[in-house]
Amino acid sequence: MSTPETTQPPHLALSIDTADLPAGAAPLAALSALAQAAEAGGATALILRDALVADADHGPRGLDASLAAASLGPLTSRLGLVVEVPSAVTEPFHTATAAQTLDHASLGRAGLALRTPSAAEIAASGKRWAAAGAGTGERALLADASDSLEAIDRLWESWEPDAIIRDVSTGRFLDRNRIHDAAFAGETFTVEGASITPRSPQGRPPVFVTVSTAAEAALAGQRADVALLAPDGGASTVPDAGWLNPVRALADAVLAEAAAERSAGATEAAPALWLALPASLPAATIAEALGAARSACLAVAGVSLRLDAGQAAPGAVSTLLAALGDAVPLPSHAASGTTLRAALGLSPALNPHAAARQLRLQEAI
């Protein structure tokens, strides 16, 4: 199934591993300069990732992506700050509260991208995973990722919007009846109790899922707000005549799964479809890829460009975005203070506990 062609300007995100920041500069200063250049150039979001262990490609680990993103909150005003986190080796409770903290620090511009961990990360950090006796195949890891996103969502929603009351006259700071147990039990973990972080500005930060396989397409269709289509893992060079076929196959799989979810009673809209491409492609080629996808009736709403080492200097980012702006009409700058959900065209996240409470009140009248 394909979606109708869209005429809205595509969103643009830049994606970088914190180990690939320019050498010779203080890492946080380099990252801050990159983020400010991305915001000034019209990017919708910056996606930060890090490896839990050193690898052959990057050597030593870079900055912790969650902490680094939180430091960017006060230094930016429009840019979405998305953190890529490995499932299975990262506790969902910690992932949920880190995303909420980032959402508070950025005044509602946080996003979460969940990925499956590498074999090296599992070997070094997967005590929970190993203890559960779970396999390391793709389906087992993606099943855990789905469980993690469900638990994270429950934690994000565990505080109703008006749980903090600050009633000086009675000395009550919280209404405990508006704080709820996440109560999740999965195959390899359980989560009990509420989040330790109050409900954040967005309530539910947008969720991004990279889609390179049919199994990842199923996860994205069920859980994502944005599906990043990367049929070869995002390592494309120049799209050729057959390039659209695997992109279409992944898009159809995502949308088919999303349609099945909606028929089963899910209330969220289908995920937005974005292309995931290397930033080393010429701007004209990126524009060509977007145009080809849209002409083929794929409603591609954005593109995520992966920056490699050497592409993350502020000047290089500004040049890249200027060239893209000439080749592709990017969305107008979001107003300062706009949430990432609003920038992406997502409706506000409604708290299910508050909605149920309101329904009970209406029925009692």
UniProtKB/TrEMBL annotation:
Gene3D superfamilies: Luciferase-like domain. Pfam families: Bac_luciferase (PF00296). GO terms for molecular function: monooxygenase activity; oxidoreductase activity, acting on paired donors, with incorporation or reduction of molecular oxygen. The keyword Flavoprotein applies. It comes from the Bacteria. Residues 20-294 form the Luciferase-like domain. Keywords: Flavoprotein, FMN, Monooxygenase, Oxidoreductase. SUPFAM superfamilies: Bacterial luciferase-like. This is LLM class flavin-dependent oxidoreductase. It comes from Galactobacter valiniphilus.
